[in-house]
Write a structure and sequence with these properties.
Layout (H helix, E strand, L loop, with lengths): L1 E10 L3 H12 L5 E4 L6 H11 L4 E6 L36 H19 L6 E3 L9 H11 L9 H9 L7 E3 L9 H9 L4 E7 L6 H6 L4 H10 L2 H9 L2 E3 L6
Parallel strand pairs: 1-2, 1-6, 1-7, 2-3, 3-4, 5-6
Helix pairs in contact: 1-2, 1-8, 3-4
């Protein structure tokens, strides 16, 4: 059996990202999304999803980068948020990060999600794949296990580590549908070659707005993603290949 989770990252980043994600769900193949709860449009996005897309699986997009303020008091995160803000990229993170800081911030972001959504997230993944950081990975796995949450595994090593920790993950991870590879042809190739088991396809749909342009380097490509993810020919291909669309809530 071939099952496919199509997860839209960055929900809550801007009203346009929210709108594009919901369009790619209601009229396309997106089944799941992860929320950046520290962004201003997150509360509105979660409300809109509850009203317009009750079948959309909503998880947490755990953030430790991007340059913004953390969920926890910055004084409690001297390593993660020096000066009161996160570093911009994963590469800028220090090699050694105290376990207590990582856990406090992950728990705080889950707490914000639960307040906004009035329910737990369906799953976890991370912005800029910070969960691959050597210090972050074991805490990410431990919290997912404690809360019985499935999690993204972007690499084979991450999948083995999470599985050994008792965390459910998809069998495969696909990140080809991005940037210059956003096209009908790329998605057609992905679906044609989809392996047996459950695969997660990462995507970043959205509509361009001022907030997105001000805070992201990945902008116009998001509208192209919406277009391709909503293409009726993709739906026909899924049916022809007997690929079942599922959310992380069914993992």
């Amino acid at each position: 059996m071939k099952r496919l989770i199509v997860n839209a990252d960055d929900f809550g980043r801007s009203p346009g990202v929210n709108a594009g994600t919901l369009q790619a769900h209601s009229g396309g193949i997106v089944t799941s999304s992860t929320v950046m709860v520290l962004e201003k449009a997150s509360a509105r996005g979660i409300r809109e999803a509850a009203e317009r897309a009750p079948r959309l699986s909503l998880g947490l997009h755990f953030v430790l980068t991007g340059g913004g303020p953390p969920a926890s008091p910055a004084r409690d995160l001297p390593t993660l948020a020096p000066g009161g803000s996160f570093r911009r990229t994963r590469e800028e993170l220090p090699h050694r990060i105290p376990e207590a800081e990582i856990r406090a911030e992950l728990e705080a972001q889950i707490g914000i999600f639960q307040v906004l959504a009035r329910k737990p997230p369906t799953h976890l993944d991370s912005h800029h794949h910070v969960a691959l950081h050597a210090c972050v990975a074991p805490i990410y796995a431990a919290v997912a296990r404690e809360r019985s949450l499935p999690a993204r595994a972007p690499t084979d090593d991450a999948r083995r580590m999470l599985s050994a920790a008792g965390v459910r993950t998809p069998d495969h991870f696909i990140d080809r549908f991005y940037a210059e590879n956003v096209s009908f042809r790329t998605l057609e190739e992905i679906l044609t070659d989809l392996p047996e088991g459950t695969s997660e396809l990462m995507c970043h749909p959205g509509l361009v707005d001022d907030a997105l342009k001000a805070g992201s380097t990945y902008v116009e490509e998001r509208e192209r993603e919406v277009e391709v993810l909503r293409d009726p020919a993709i739906g026909r291909l899924l049916r022809a290949k007997a690929i079942q669309l599922v959310g992380f809530d069914l993992l």
